[in-house]
Amino acid sequence: MGIGSLNRPRWLVATLLLWSFLACNFSSAGTPVTLIAHESVNLDKLNTSTLRAIFSLRKRSWENQTPIKVFVLPDNHPLHKNFCKTVLKIYPYVLRDQWDRVIFSGVGTPPTTVKDIEELRRVVTSTPGAIGYAPGELSVNKQQYYAIVPTGLQP
User: Residue 57's closest CA among 88, 36, 34?
Assistant: First the structure.
């Protein structure tokens, strides 16, 4: 038994760990994100800067004066990271810093964080003025909520 045979299991384990790490980190990188909102919300005229204002808690009500209720996934969720980078065009930690600034200054309340995509979909469809996001492959029931694919948004 040579030295090479002792290192082979370690090398195999290290390689498997690296591949699983890469698979987890990039699994939703290409997943399209769909913006979802309660049926009472009109999303026709949203652009990237308006979405940034909504999700950074600077815009607090819709045009009809209905309060905006923001629902998000946890900061470390791959879909949340993808949403921040592809739709809002900011890093998730920047969005978190903006939330903390608004919360600690006493000007606003934090967005509601839900545990998974199904819960996010359920609370958005049942809360007037709600907005959130979901995977692009999610089947959209137009009677429950309105959905757009943000790739067509204007900068």
Answer: 88
